[in-house]
Amino acid sequence: MDFRNWIQGAARREYLVLAAATVFASAAAAPVAFAQQEEGETDEATILEEIVVTGSRLARTNFDAPTPLVQVGEQDIAASTSPSIGDLLNDLPQLRSTFGLNNSGRFIGTAGIGLLDLRGLGDERTLVLVNGRRHVGADPGSTVVDVNSIPPEMIERIEVITGANSAVYGADAVSGVVNFILKDDFEGVAVNASVGDADDTSFGRESLSLTIGKNFAEGAGNAVFAITYDSQDLLTAGQRGGEFTEQWGEVPNPADGDTIVDGIQVDDGIPDDIFVRNQGFWALSNAGYSFFLGGRLAPDGSFIQDDPSSWQFVDGLSCGGANCPALDLDSFAPLQVGLDRFTLNANFTYDLSPDAELFFESKYAQVESNQQGQPSFDFFSFTGAAAGGGDAVILRDNAFISPSLGAAMDAAGLPFIDLQRFNVDLGLRKENNTRETLRTVLGVRGEIFDTGYDYEVFANYGRTFLERVNFNNRINDRWLAAVDAVEIDEAGAAALVTSGLNPGAAAGDIVCRSTLQEAQGEDSGLPAFAFQDCVPANILGLGLISDEAKDFINATAVATSELEQTQIAAVVTNPEIVDLWAGPLGGVVGYEYREEQSRTEGDALSQTVDTFFNNLSDTIGEFDVNEFFGEVSVPLLRDVPFVQDLTFEGAIRFSDYSTIGSTTTWETRLNWQPLDDLRFRFNTGEALRAPTIDDLFAPEGQNFANVDDPCDFQNLDDGTAGRNTRIANCQALGIADPENFDSRDESSVNLLQGGNDELKEETADTFTAGFVYTPNWLEGFSFAADYYDIEIEDAIAFTGTQAILDRCVDNPAGINNQFCNLVTRDADGNITQVRQFPLNLNALRSSGWDFEVDYVFDIGRWGTLQNRLIGSYLQERVFELRSADNVDQVEGELGDPEWQLNYRGTWLFGNWTSFLEIRWIDEMFRFEQETLFGSAVNQDPNPDISSVTTAHDVFYFDVGTTYRFEDQLEGLEVGLVIDNVTDENPPFPLFGNGAGSGIYDSIGRFYSLRATYRFGQ
C-alpha cells in the first residue's frame, strides 16, 4: 500500500481532516491527564450498571437478556489472527460462512468484503448495528454491511442475537441482529502490532494500531482516536500445492451398472462416479487444442497428434492417467483474497449539562482488496472471424502457422481450424476493489428535567465509495482481429501506406487481416477500434504473444459505486414509568427517518464494448422510510410460589416506505423466573425485509453461470418427473433427438439479470424459547439453551439458473411455463441465454437449538480456568420454491452442518494467559449445485452418486499464550497464537473457498506473534 497516495486521496475527500479535527480540538481543551486505577481497586458502579443489551432498548444487565444472546469480547477478538472481524464471527455456530476472506471473491466487486449471515438465511436478512445504530452498506444496491471496515481495536464487545427484531430496530432484522459496541471513555495510549505467517506457504498477515484517549474539562469530556493498518497476502491453490494441485477429478465409474427401467434409473449401489488423479480437460490447453485435427500445439507452435487410446476414463472432455495431457484449472483458484485496510476513528463525548451529553462518532475506512482468477479462454470455438463470428479460429494462411501445423491442416484438407485455448500468456484476470467508508454520528442524550425519562436524539450519515478495477479484460473484437494475422505482399503494403492505416508497412510484414481488408476497401465486419492500430498476436504456441499485442487486446475496466445512508432518530425511554403490583412499568417511544441511495456507473468500455468480462449496466435508485415505534415492559407477577418474576414485553413499529408503502412489525417477549437459579424466556414476532435498491431498480446486466443442460443425454434421468417427461419437453423445445443430444454446456452460460419494481416486502414469523440455569450449588457455572424457529414468506430471491432450466423441462404440463420463457436456445438446441429477476415466490424456514455452557473456577495456586462451550443443532433449513412446488432441504449439506461445537478454555496463571480453542464441524453431504437460489445446495436423490458423497467431520485446534510484563516493562504484553495446530485441510475434494466450503480453513497451520503496549491507563 502506498501511504503517500492514500493520505493524498483521503485529504482530497476531506475525510482525514474531519476525523483528525475531532481529536485535536478536544486535545486542546485541557492538558493530558491519564487516570489510573489503584491496584486491587474495583469499580463496583461499573460492574452493576445496567446497560442496553441488544434485542431491546430497555436497560437491564447482561444476565437478564430478553432474547438468546451470544457475546464476543475483547479477549476473543485479541486472540484472532485474521484482520477480518467477520472471519472471527463466522466461526460461531450461529453464523454461516457465506462471505469471508476465503470466499468473498466469488462475485464481481465483492472480494474482501465481510458479510454476516445468521442462520444461513442470507446476509441481507442479518441486521448489523454499531452502538445500536444503522451502518451504511457496502455492496452496491443493498444495505449489507462490510464488517471488515470496523477495526477490531475499537470494539468492546459484539452481541449476536436471534429473533424478530424489526419492531425494535427496523427492517432487515429477520434472522437476527449483530451489534458492535465500541469503546468509549478510554484513557491512555495503546499500541498493538502483530505479524503472522503460514506454515507451508509465503502467505502472511500484519497489523499495527494506535489508540489514544483522554478525559478533559475535569472529566466532563472524553476523546478517543484510533488509527489502524492491517494487511494480508493473496493466496491461491497453486501456492499451497499438495491436494490443491493434484488435479483430482470426478469421472464415471466403469464398474457402475445402473439400468433404466420404464424411463427411471435403477441404482445398483455402486458409485456412479469415482475420483481419479491427474484428471482434467484434455480438450483445452495453454498453447491450444484443435478438435478438427484431434491434437494440440507445443509451446513453440509445433503440432502434436494426440493418442486418446492411452488415456484413462475418457468421458467427454475429461481424461485421467499419467499420459493424459489434462489442463489443471484449479491452480488459479483463490484461497484468500489480498487485503489492505487503513482506518481512522475519532469518538468524542462532552457533558453540556447534568442532563445533556453531546456525543460524536466518526470513522473513515479504506479497504483495498485484490484477487486473481483464470485468464480468458476460448472453448468450443468452431466458428470465428473467418466463418461468420466467434472466437479463436485460425485460417490456413495465418502467418504464425508452424510447418507441422500447416502440414496437418493440408493432410486433413482443412481451410481453417478451431483453437480451444486457455489464454494464460494473455494475462490472468485480476480485480482490485477499493472501498472508502465515511460514517459520522452526532447526537445528544440525557435525562428530561430529572423526570426519569431518558432521551437520545441523533443524526447518522454514512457513505461508501467503491472503485472496482478489472485488469486484463479482453476486448473480443480486438482479439478476433489480432489473432487473424497474415503476411502481406507489395500490393498489400502499398494499400496500407496509402490508406494511412500503416504508413510504415513493407512486403513481408505480418499484419491483422482486418486492417488489410479495410485498407483495400473491403468491410472486415469489425468496428474501427478493432482494426485501427491492430497488433498481430501469435497464439499458436505458448508465451508468443508480444507485449504490444497484449496492450492492444486487453483493457482495464473501471466502475464506481456510491452508497449513502441518512438516519435521523429520537428515542425517549423510562424503565420505571409507574410502579405496578409486581414492579415498575417501563416503556420506549421513538421516531426514525432513514434514506438509502445507491449509484453505480461503469466506464464506456464496461457498457458499450464486447469484452470477456461481464458487461454491467448502471444502477441508480433510492428510497426512504418514516417510522414510529414503541416498546413496553409490564411486570405481571413477583415473589409468589414458583414465580419470582414474570414480565411481559412488547414492541411495535409502524413504517411507511416510499417503495412498498405501509408496513407493521411487532414482537412480544415473556421472561419467567420461577427459582433463584432458573429463568425461562420466550419471544415471538413478525419481522420484515424491504426490497433493496438492486432488487427493485437494477437494469438488466450480464453475468455467467455454469450449468448442466437437462436436455443433454447424460442428464435425462435426473429429472423429478422422470426421463420420458424430459425427453418430450426437450423435443418440444426443438431438440429432435434428446437421447443423442450432447449439449455444449461445459462452458459458461450467459445470464441477463435485473431488478423487479413490483416486488413487495418479505415477512418472517419467528419464535424462540429457552432457559438460563445458574445453579447456586455450583459457583461459576451457567447453562443456557434456546430453540428458534424462523419462517419467511414471500422471500425475495433469484430463481437459480439450474432451477430455471430444470423446472422448464420437468413440468408434466409441457413447456408453456414461466421458466421456459426465460431460456433461449440456438438452432442446434444449445442454451445461449437465461434471464433472471427477483420474485416474491419463495419461502424459507430454519429451526434448531443453541446452547452455551460457561464454567469458571479457581485451581488454587495454579490460577483460574475459564471454560466456554457454544453449540448449535440445525434441525431444519428449507428453501421452498412455491411456484414449482419444490422443497430444498439443506440441513446437513455443505455449509449447513447439523451440529457445530466451539470450546474455549482459558488458563489465567500469574502474568500468563493461555487458551485452547477447539472447533468441531459435523460431517456434511458435499454436493453443491445451483437449484433454487443461485448457489444453494441440493442433495441428489441418487444413493450411489459418487464414491465421495460426504465431507467428513473436522476438528480445528487453536492455541495461544500471552505474557504480561511488570516493573520496567509494565504495560507490555507479548503473545503467540497458533491456528489450526494439526494443519487440517478442507475435506477432500474441497478447497474451502466456496459459499458452502468456506466453513473450512484454507490456509493451514498459521503462526502469529502479537505485542501490545499500554500506558497512561
Short description:
With 1017 residues, the chain is mainly β.
Structure description:
With 1017 residues, the protein is mainly beta. Among the domains are: 241-333 and 374-430 and 473-555, no CATH class; 711-735 and 769-1015, no CATH class. Helices cover 12% and strands 45% of the residues. The chain has 17 helices and 56 strands. The protein has a 22-stranded antiparallel β-barrel. Strands 3-8-9-6-7 form a 5-stranded mixed beta sheet. The protein has a 4-stranded mixed beta sheet with strand order 41-42-46-45, with helices on one face. A hairpin with a 5-residue loop joins strand 47 (839-858) and strand 48 (864-881). The protein is globular and about 100 Å long. The two termini are 32 Å apart.
Label this structure with key terms.
five-stranded mixed beta sheet; 56 strands; 1017 residues; single chain; mainly beta; globular
**Residue-averaged pLDDT, rounded?**
86
Kindly report how far apart the N and C termini lie.
32 Å
Rg, Cα atoms, Å: 31 Å
Shape: globular
Question: Hey, roughly how much beta strand do the residues contain?
Answer: over 45%
**Helical coverage, percent range:** 10-25%
Q: Enumerate the spans where pLDDT stays under 50 for 5 or more consecutive residues.
A: 1-49, 382-390, 928-941
Give the number of DSSP strands.
56
Structural topology:
Elements lengths: L2 H11 L1 H13 L16 H5 L2 E2 L6 E2 L8 E5 H6 L5 H6 L4 E5 L15 E4 L7 E5 L2 E2 L20 E7 L4 H4 L6 E7 L5 E11 L5 E13 L4 E12 L2 E2 H4 L8 E4 L6 E3 L2 E3 L6 E4 L3 E2 L7 E2 L4 E3 L5 E3 L6 E4 L2 E3 L13 E3 L1 E16 L2 E20 L1 E2 L14 E3 L7 H10 L3 E3 L2 E2 L5 E20 L6 E21 L1 H8 L1 E3 L2 H10 L10 E3 H7 L8 H4 L15 H7 E27 L2 E20 L1 H5 L10 E22 L2 E15 L3 E15 L2 E12 L3 H5 L3 E5 L17 H10 L16 E5 L8 E12 L7 E17 L3 H9 L13 E3 L5 E6 L2 E20 L5 E18 L4 E4 L9 E11 L2 E10 L2 E2 L24 E2 L2 E11 L7 E8 L26 E10 L2
Parallel strand pairs: 6-9, 42-46
Antiparallel strand pairs: 1-2, 3-8, 4-5, 6-7, 8-9, 10-11, 10-56, 11-12, 12-25, 13-24, 14-17, 15-16, 18-23, 19-20, 20-21, 22-23, 25-26, 26-31, 27-30, 28-29, 31-32, 32-35, 33-34, 35-36, 36-37, 37-38, 38-39, 39-40, 40-43, 41-42, 43-44, 44-47, 45-46, 47-48, 48-49, 48-50, 50-51, 51-54, 52-53, 54-55, ...
